[in-house]
Amino acid sequence: MSAHATAEAPSTAPTPEFCGKYHFLLRRLHSLTGILPVGVFLCFHLFTNFQMLVGNFQHEVQFIHDMPALLFIEIFGLWLPIGFHAALGVVYTFTGVPNSTAYSYQDNWRYTFQRITGILALLFIFVHVAKLRWGWTFGGMLDTPFYLSGPNGEPLAKATTAIALQHAFPLAAIMYVVGVYSCVYHFANGLWTAAITWGLTVSVAAQKRWGQVCTAVGVALAIFTAGAIYASLTYKVTDQERAMVAQLEQAEASGASMEAPAMPTH
Ligand code: HEM
Q1: pLDDT given for residue 106 in this prediction
Q2: Which pLDDT value is given to residue 10?
Q3: Is position 189 within any domain?
Q4: Is 92 a pocket residue for ligand 1 (Cβ < 6 Å)?
Q5: Is 19:26 a contact under the CB 8 Å cutoff?
Q6: Phi then psi for 121, rounded to 5 degrees?
Q7: Is residue 249 part of a domain?
Q8: Residue range of the domain that includes 126
Q9: Sign, CA torsion 56/57/62/63
């Protein structure tokens, strides 16, 4: 993260015509929601997924699903803040003036890349949520189910995640790599610009130091992501796990109630 970006803070501001007198407030809220709750959630989510490689993924996912008022937390703690950040982000993206072609400074490229990764993150998050929470299969392209547990409570979170990535290989894996790494870059770079937005890093030296912290955060999240994808692609799904998934799918198709899958599936 270099010192050129001191010029970035004013240039990233939304057009006053659009935001009018709320420009300052909206800019602060956009910045805040990008970090809390969205960015913090991203960190927890990627760390949980990393447990597929190094820990007890089933336990972590179960913990989340056992949280009281999960839907309420999701709506007010995640979907609305992401929706707000994304909606304003789209406006900023299409009303900002990137000048990466005129000045090939690293910071101008980062400005443009922040917007590109924002749009990619939006598309990815939409597909991810639509598939895992609303059960969309996108015309059968993403048709593997996710089950937390089998008919008798057997752990299935890792196996069904692995099936999803392996079954649609390489499409699903590419989608995860592009989508999650876009989120990671966007968040790490956003952390850096947010400190300017909030007036926390005024000097070039402070921006450099904070840049090192943001880079470390980005690298850690990138490692968590690589670990989770590697664990999913290399996990050997057993015949017993496949049989349980088939059984749950059959029961779902026939409307019979077995040990309920923890999430809307497919
Ligand atoms: C994983 C989800 C996301 C996270 C964690 C996140 C986080 C952040 C953070 C921390 C910032 C820095 C704010 C600042 O400089 O004050 C930011 C900026 C930005 N975000 Fe996001 N964001 C996410 C998704 C999105 C989406 C879906 C869009 C939609 C296009 C988007 C568009 C933008 C734009 C355009 C900026 C730059 C705003 C500016 O500097 O004027 N973001 N984001």
Answers
A1: 77
A2: 41
A3: yes
A4: yes
A5: yes
A6: -60, -40
A7: yes
A8: 3-253
A9: positive
Nearest CA to ligand 1 atom 1: 183
Test site for ligand 1: of 1, 6, 18, 30, most ligand atoms within 8 A of the Cβ = 30
pLDDT attached to residue 96: 78
Q: Which atom of ligand 1 is nearest to the CA of 92?
A: 35
241 within 8 A of 159, measured Cβ to Cβ: yes
Nearest-angstrom CA–CA distance, 245 and 90: 39
- Domain CATH number, residue 81: 1.20.1300.10
Question: Does pTM surpass 0.85?
Answer: yes
Indicate the top mutation candidate among 41, 82, 85 to test ligand 1's pocket, ranked by most ligand atoms within 8 A of CB.
Answer: 85
CB 218 within 8 A of CB 184: yes
User: How many domains are there within the chain?
Assistant: 1
Residue 4: per-residue pLDDT: 40
Q: Is residue 116 part of a domain?
A: yes
Residue ranges for the chain with pLDDT beneath 50: 1-11, 13, 259-266
Any atom of ligand 1 within 6 Å of the Cβ of 190: yes
Q: For residues 244 and 156, is the Cβ–Cβ distance under 8 A?
A: yes
Task: Kindly report the backbone phi and psi dihedral angles of residue 126, in degrees, each rounded to the nearest multiple of 5, phi listed first.
Answer: -60, -50
Is the CB–ligand 1 distance for residue 166 below 6 Å? Answer: no
Return the H-helix or E-strand segment holding 230: helix 204-234
In a domain, 108, yes or no: yes
